[in-house]
Amino acid sequence: MEELAYWIGFNRVMGIGAVRLKALLDHFDDDVEAAWFAGATDLLEAGLDRRSVSNLLLARQQMDLQAQIDQLKQSGVTALTWQCEEYPINLRNIEQPPPVLYIKGELIPEDDWAVAVVGTRRASVYGKEVARRLASDLVRNGITVVSGLATGIDSMAHRAAVDVGGRTLAVLGSGVDVIYPANNRQLATAIQEQGALISEFPLGTHPERRNFPPRNRIISGLSLGTVVVEAGVRSGALITVKSALDQGRDVFAVPGSILQKSCEGSNRLLRDGARPVLSVEDILEELHLAKVTQQAEVRAAVPTTFIESTLLGHLSGEPTYVDELSRLTDLPAATIASTLTVLELKGLVRQVGGMSYIQVRDF
Questions:
Q1: Residue 157's closest CA among 186, 135, 141?
Q2: Is the CA virtual torsion 242, 244, 249, 253 positive or negative?
Q3: Looking at the chain, which runs of residues are DSSP E strands?
Q4: pLDDT for 251-302, tens place per residue?
Q5: Nearest CA to 168 among 195, 136, 128, 190?
Q6: For 222, which DSSP code?
Q7: Distance between CA atoms of 250 and 351, rounded to whole angstroms?
């Protein structure tokens, strides 16, 4: 049985999410197969509660893991886990990233330069036109547009990206084989050809209200920044904003009419400190995205090494001094300095004064 099958199995067990799965992998030395077949006593010692243990033991009896793998292949769906190098770097850097991502379409390295464009389902003519222009301009500048395939602003952002031949990723609150809303099936097919449909939910999962807040954290997690085009005070886009702020990502908002309910939420974001967007240049400048092409070329030409990955693992959005990196990694100062230079060229880290660096989440 291939290792992926056990990840898929855990992903279908009620009560075992990112936190508990990480605890299991820590306990079983990253051996997901050993964790899957562990006895009840070992599972309890690893930190699972009795209900989760019971759910896992029942799943082992009832679930045909090979059938799960076969279903993925038959559906043309790829599954990425934490242990996959292809797992999106922006999402990997959030707290509790999804253990498994189901992908219909293709992710490419250039998708690391992504911006979310989100907003209300009840979009005005103004909101739709702004979403269309911003999404079109973003992809013309080499940026991947991320959204949630909902009606209104989300659909317009995806459609605009597709229409100008750009990259776009749609994150679903259902399985990638269950398109919601159904009238976006044609758009979903086009997105697969120029990007991907993405979900943390197993195949066959139907859209439920509780699925959408977790889905929104993936939208912001895949992105360097989130742009709210038009949103009321109860819009789901504001949940995406909260996730973005929790993840240390920038939030942008487009000014709207103070007389229009559908703009009340986005206007409040501006009042509370979101960066205003009058044109795509406001996003590109704030996120340092003017050099995307050069950064992509360097990153493609120079693959990430073990040392680079080690340093990235010790960097975050808070400045870390070079001497601290040396202490944490036991690497020579000269090696750290040269590696940080390469990571800067790749657009993965940025120097923020003196000899302190941050991992770039908003380059």
A1: 135
A2: negative
A3: 78-81, 100-105, 114-118, 144-147, 168-171, 195-199, 225-228, 250-253, 275-276, 320-321, 349-351, 356-359
A4: 999 999 998 898 999 999 999 999 999 999 999 988 878 666 566 666 665 6
A5: 195
A6: T
A7: 18
